[in-house]
Write a structure and sequence with these properties.
The protein is α/β, with parallel strands linked by helices and 239 residues long. 31% of the residues lie in helices and 30% in strands. The chain contains six helices and twelve strands. Strands 6, 7, 8, 9, 10, 11 and 12 form a seven-stranded parallel beta sheet that branches. A five-stranded mixed beta sheet has the order 1-3-4-5-2.
Length: 239
């Protein structure tokens, strides 16, 4: 039987716990797990817990955690992804795959050619949705620490404030990614569906970003972070 693994948004410890309502509904009504089924829980602290369901009701699920252990180590390469805002599933895909590929932080970037504009309540809802996308990706891929998903920020503000040993902006006319030395932290800037304008690339270079390319083909905004992070993890991370 495959061991079910869930993120719990509350501190965990050995012993008995009532699970939050959302997880209780999913475990009891969607997955139809039952008392006696084994589970593995994590709270984002880096610790993992093995236990057993001891009560499964319509609204209440109780678990007993019996073993704690250190979870999967994070990549030694700390990556902050600045991802141009894109529509619907494209942004979800970028966040999901970036999480699976070990990114530490993700900032949705508002730039000149973005077709998406988020304000106030709508922005809060999208941020909560993106966080859930990252949680689901962590549950699937085995990560014990969630990436930080920041609120949408303007390109100018992000490139001014982001800190990293190496800052790269993807650009088709540039040196290959492998031409740079090994950093311990990396900031990646990837444009939206329409790409970054030449003025935005120039502004990024003035802010300390180095143009880098991934190959001869122009990649979609949701494909670029998958390839960029894969190459970076192969060169400098844990691949």
């Amino acid at each position: 039987m495959r061991l079910s693994r869930f993120f719990i948004d509350a501190p965990l410890a050995l012993g008995q716990h009532n699970l939050p309502e959302a997880q209780a509904h999913y475990i009891g009504r969607v997955l139809r797990l039952a008392s006696g089924d084994p589970v593995q829980l994590f709270d984002g602290s880096g610790q993992e817990y093995l236990g057993e369901l001891i009560e499964v009701g319509k609204k209440t699920v109780r678990v007993e955690l019996r073993e704690a252990f250190t979870g999967m180590a994070e990549s030694p390469l700390r990556v902050h992804l600045g991802q141009g805002l894109s529509r619907g599933e494209r942004m979800d895909w970028a966040i999901q795959k970036a999480t699976e590929l070990g990114v530490a932080q993700i900032s949705p970037i508002v730039s000149e050619r973005c077709e998406v504009r988020l304000k106030d309540e709508r922005a809060d809802k999208r941020l909560a949705h993106w966080r859930q996308v990252a949680i689901s990706a962590c549950e699937q891929c085995g990560r014990s620490v969630l990436p930080v998903i920041h609120s949408p920020v303007t390109l100018a503000d992000w490139q001014r404030d982001v800190q990293a040993d190496l800052k790269l902006v993807l650009h088709p006319v540039a040196e290959p990614l492998a031409g740079h030395g090994r950093p311990s932290s990396l900031a990646f800037l990837i444009g939206p569906e329409g790409g970054l304008s030449e003025a935005e690339v120039d502004a990024a270079k003035a802010a300390g970003f180095h143009p880098a390319r991934l190959g001869p083909r122009v990649l979609r905004t949701e494909t670029a972070p998958v390839v960029a992070l894969s190459v970076a993890q192969q060169l400098w991370g844990d691949f």
